[in-house]
Structures are given as structure tokens and as C-alpha cells.
Fold each of these.
Amino acid sequence: MELPLEALENRAQTTGLAGIPTKVANGHRLSTGDALAMYRSDDVALLGLLANHMRKAMHGDVAYYNVNIHVNYTNWCNQFCGFCAFQRRPGDDGAYCMTPEQVHDVLASANPEATEVHMVAGVWPALKYSYFLEILRAAKTARPDIHVKAFTMVEIDEIVRLAKKPLAEVLDELREAGLDSMPGGGAEVFSERVRQQLYPRKMSAERWLELARGIHKYGFKTNCTMLYGMTETLEERVDHLTRLRALQDDTQGFQTYIPLAFHPANTPKLSHLPMPSPLERLRSIAIGRLYLDNVPHVKAYWIMTGLAVAQAALSMGADDLDGTVSQEKVYHDAGAQTPEILRRQDIHRLILESGHVPVERNTLYQVVRDFRHQELPIKDASSSALPV
Ligand code: V47
């Protein structure tokens, strides 16, 4: 669809977005100045319209989802991040660490249609290198065909430290044990200032990017994220996205960008903050699509955006809703009000109502099932009660 460029540029002149519609229409890369202007502008509707144009050019009417399970195998963590409500020390109320047998049993009894397990957790130094290999093997023994997307860069850093071996050798062994790809977490926001304030024990931005680079060069796909809405400035958000974009230019290893809206409830240092507003969550999706022009997919992770925002995001830059998800703990401990699981028909309804076509994908975006010809389901009592 052609953009009514003249009208959009006229409007952009008055909303601080001058020149951006023309660049988007011509497929030109946006500058850091453009990214900052997009964060500062009140015209989120225009950003959404432009991001939708780009999303449609890349993915047409398709909206992806997958059928997946989350296994947060331990909440023991020694990073003590000020934004995290999930972490515990061993012995604390609610602290747990799953054995490989428990990981096996959770997967053996999980949705038989699931094609992916998303396995992330805290880091605790008493866990041995062999533990990580064993939980991967346990997952694959329970479900030989499932794609294991596991371990953020923070966990990989810890695993490499425990293994006392070079990265490539550790990746060989993790792959051998069952690892198929990595998720995008642990990056938070790359600002050193915010890191010192809220997560000084966590790896630096440089280390996160260096590991991601090594992992991409090795041949694993990963995702990328930005946790926003804490104490970072808009300039720091732009810097974060710019670093992700530069790495992606070199490696093409990121499949999907997932902006993560900060959930303040129960967090050690930031429970006084409000959660980013629905409009801010949509802005983050749209900017992600427009600025990260080299990352194929943008995910509206419904667990964290909320269902209403996730649905709207499909028309403002996002092409993916993540999955059916079950047993997610990181966000629910931080007060997320979303359900802990969606059924396939719930996801179809969100997608179809937004004017898109549901396509079930696997982790690597190969099509599992295309629901192009499915009619919007007649509302039944159970699905009409979807919370927002
Ligand atoms: O790394 C922790 C963030 C991440 C809070 O790759 C918080 O497909 C908001 O990375 N409020 C883990 N965010 C989740 C994650 C993820 C999720 C879905 C899909 C994928 C993927 C990755 O969650 C952490 C951290 O950045 N986080 N606490 C909080 N209170």
C-alpha cells in the first residue's frame, strides 16, 4: 500500500517527526536523531501507521505465534537486580531449583502440541556445569522433537565460567545436550549508568554484546530485548537499540526484537514506579519495527504488554505474539495480570479480530500451520471473557 506521503510529511512537520515518513516510504535507514524524535513525539498514531507499513512490507497480513511452554528452572539468583521480583536466595520463602527429573516431568506432561520450551532462570554459583547439560538432556528425553530455546547471555556467561572452557567448546556441548537457540533476555538496558544504579553485579553491555556476537558466529540464533520504563533516559534507550542494530548488521543472528515493559510490583528498588502506559508500550513496538530495520520480527509478548495492547500492536509494527505460554513466572511475580496461558483459539481470536492471519510457527519461523482460511470463531462464553 502506498503511503500518502505528502499528507504524512505535513503532519510530521507539526509533530516533531519531519522527514521520517519519507525515509520509511523509501526504505532508508533511520538515524539516532530520528529514534530520539520518535521517543519524544506525541504522535504515536503516526509512528504506528509507519511501522505498520514496514511490517506489512515484510510480513503481509501474517501474525505469527507458537505453541510453547516456559520452564523457569530456578529462581535462585545472585545478581540481585533492583528491577527483579523473581529472584530468591536458597532457603528464602518460595525459593526453588528444579532437578533434571522435575524438568523432565514438567515437559513430559506438558501440552503435546508444544513445539518449543523457553527455559530461563536466575544464576546461582553452586549449580554445576553438569546441571545445565542435564536439564537440557532431560528436556530432550521427555520431548525429543521439541525446540529448546534456553539460557540468556547472563546464564551462558555463568555456564562458560563454570565449565572453564572456551565458548565454542561449551556451545558444542550444550548443543550436543539439546540446546537449539537462545532467547533475548538479560540485556536490560545497556546504559552503564543504569547498570551501576540497579544491576551492578550483572554483566556489562560490552560482555552481553560480545557473547551474542560469539554465539551468532558459532551458528545459534538468538532474540534481543530491551527492558524499558525503569530509570533510563530516552537517549539511553536509543543507544541500546543502536548497539543491537550494529551487532545485527554484522551477524544477522537476531530473529526477533521484544521490547519488555517494566513491571514494578514486588521489585526491590522500583516498586514506586508506574508501569509504562499502554500508549508507551505501543510506541516501543512501533519504534522497534522502524529503527531495527535489520531484525526480521518484532514480538508483542502478550504476557507483558497485556492482551489489548498486544492485539493493537499487530497493527503498529508487531508481527508476532509469542506463544500460548504456560507456567511463566518472571512477570507474574512482578505483578502481571495477564493469564498464565492462552489457548490456541484465544490467540486466533486476537489475531483475526485485528485483521491478520494466524500462522503457527516454530522457533525458527518455519510455518507449522497456516490458518489463512479459518473464519472468525463464533464467540463462545469462554473466549468472550478474555481479560485485557
Ligand atoms: O531478562 C525481569 C526481564 C527478561 C522484570 O526471547 C522484567 O523469545 C519487566 O527475556 N519487569 C526475561 N521485565 C524475559 C525474556 C523474554 C520473554 C519472552 C520472550 C523472550 C524471547 C524473552 O525479563 C529478563 C529481564 O530483562 N524482566 N524482571 C520486570 N519486573
Amino acid sequence: MTGYKRVALIGLGLIASSMAHAIRQHRLADEIVGHAKSAGTRETALEIRLVDRVCETAAEAVQGADLVVLCVPVGAMGAIAAEIAPHLEPGATVTDVGSVKQAVIAAVAPHLPGHVHFIPGHPLAGTEHSGPRSGFATLFVNRWWLLTPLEATPPEPVARLRGFLETLGANVDLMDAHRHDLVLAVVSHTPHLIAYTMVGVADHLRRVTHEEVIKYSASGFRDFTRIAASDPTMWRDVFLTNKEATLDILGRFTEELFILQRAIRMGDGDQLFDYFTRTRAIRRGIIEAGQDTAAPDFGRGGPERG
Ligand code: NAP
């Protein structure tokens, strides 16, 4: 069986709304129930008929659900888990979509009763948009969805969740949570921090920001601004909770930056050329792995991994 009877989506932003559209499209649930913190988001979800039923509380939303998906910022996961724990259906699967895994496991697992299966997850798919109107059914197609199951979790609920996510279009892999956080620090978290920094630097140069930087932003800077437009709450929580791995990668990044800085200062063209040749090969590898397009617009318009 790949579907579930009742899916409860806690949080109704980009990821949850994309899941809702995809679940509907593939008829993967008899009923989708949703909850979000603010009345405004709940009203929007009702207005656009994002889910079948919108609940005032997370506790109410999870009642009778055989799949519960926590789609809130990483820092909000623990409190939600504490709230829903007494209301979870025996045998239900609880998963999450948080961008960091060790911190979510530490915050959520202690609250959950032994009669549910907690299978942490993370779709490597997203855009810089957020909120209930930002989702679309194809967000997860051909994107990785990493699951980091706990040792005690039996294989059957993991296989069932895997089948469900694969029907949403995702490629599912199982991974250890520690490894997940390190890998994501390299491929997503640190690049986002660099984008935020670069846009921040331009903002400091206020003299040019409002004129030349905006006017001539057709090059790399424009891609940085798109990434740096990502949701501030989500990314604040990512850096607060994936601290160790991000600081490790940032340290390595700074060392590399100094090497390039020195090559520029010394006029070492060979070193710069060799360096850029190596990085170009990595880009080719990503395209060959089907994770981006070779289109000359730099893949703009396509989904961005989050
Ligand atoms: P989003 O569009 O900003 O939506 C977040 C949702 O969570 C909103 O509906 C918000 O409700 C709700 N929420 C926040 N705190 C809550 C609480 N205490 N109780 C109930 N609802 C609460 O965010 P998103 O992009 O979908 O991200 C959700 C999760 O997915 C995050 O953990 C993020 O790390 C992960 N993720 C994101 C991406 C990406 O690229 N965006 C990719 C992969 C994974 P209100 O609207 O009422 O505030």
C-alpha cells in the first residue's frame, strides 16, 4: 500500500502545500487535514481548498491520521511534537521535512509515544517562496528525499513511507542523521550563508546598491539575491540547529577563500585557472546526475534544492 487513509500536514507553507497538491494529484490519501499557526494562513488554506479540512490546533489535526507530516521551521518542531503526542493514533507514522536532522530528532523523539513510528525526512527541493500559495505538485519530481530512520524503527513503515514519497516523484535514500547534516552543510546551508553574505556586502555599499547593483545584476549576483530571498525564519533555524557542521564547512571555505585571495594578490593565473577547471567539472557532474539543467540561463526557473 503506497497511500494513507488520513494525512495531517502541520504547517501549511511551501513544502506542505506542494505535498498537498501532489498527494491529491496521485490520490495518495482519502483525506488531507491541515493546521498552521496563524489564522491568516488557515483562512488562505481554506479559501484555496488546499486541504480537505483545516484545524485550529495541531492536536486536533493529527487525530485519526495514519501519516503526520511536520512541515514547520526546525525550531518549532519540539513544541509541536509535545502538543500532538497524546493525540497520535497507535501505529501512525510521524515524519518531518526539516532541513536539519539531528536537532529535529533530539527535539521530537523524546515526546513521541512508543506506539508511533517516527521517521525523520528531508526533501531536497524548494524555492525561495513560502506560504500556502507557493506550493506546486511537481516540486519533488526527480528530487532527492532523504530519510534518516532511527535504529529501532521497523522496516515496514519505512518502506511504506518510501513508496508514498516515490509516488510524489521523489528519489528516496536512507542516510544517517549525522551524515545528512554534514552533507547538507556543504550542498545547501553554507551556500545559502554565502549568498546572504554577498547580498549583505552589496547592501553595505549603499552608494551603488540602488543604482548599479540593481541595474547590472544580470550576472552571478542575481542568483545570490534569489537564494538570499529565502525565508528568514527557516534559515535562522537551520544555522542555529546545524551549528557544528556549518561552522566546520565555513572554516574550510574560509581557508579556500584565502588561497584564492593570495593567488589573486600574487598574480598566480595558473592556480586560479586550475582551481576553476576543477570546479567546472563538479558542475558537469551535477548536470550528468540529472540534478540541474545545462540550459544557458543557469537553470533559472527550475526548482532550487533547499
Ligand atoms: P514556509 O513556507 O515558511 O511555511 C512554514 C509553515 O509553518 C507556515 O504555514 C507556518 O504557519 C507554519 N508554522 C510555523 N510555526 C508553527 C507552529 N508553531 N505551529 C504550527 N504551524 C507553524 O516554510 P517551508 O519552506 O514550507 O518550510 C517548512 C520546513 O521545510 C522547514 O523545516 C524547512 O527547513 C523545510 N524545508 C524547506 C525547504 C525550502 O526550500 N523552503 C526545502 C526543504 C525543507 P504560519 O503561516 O501561520 O506562520
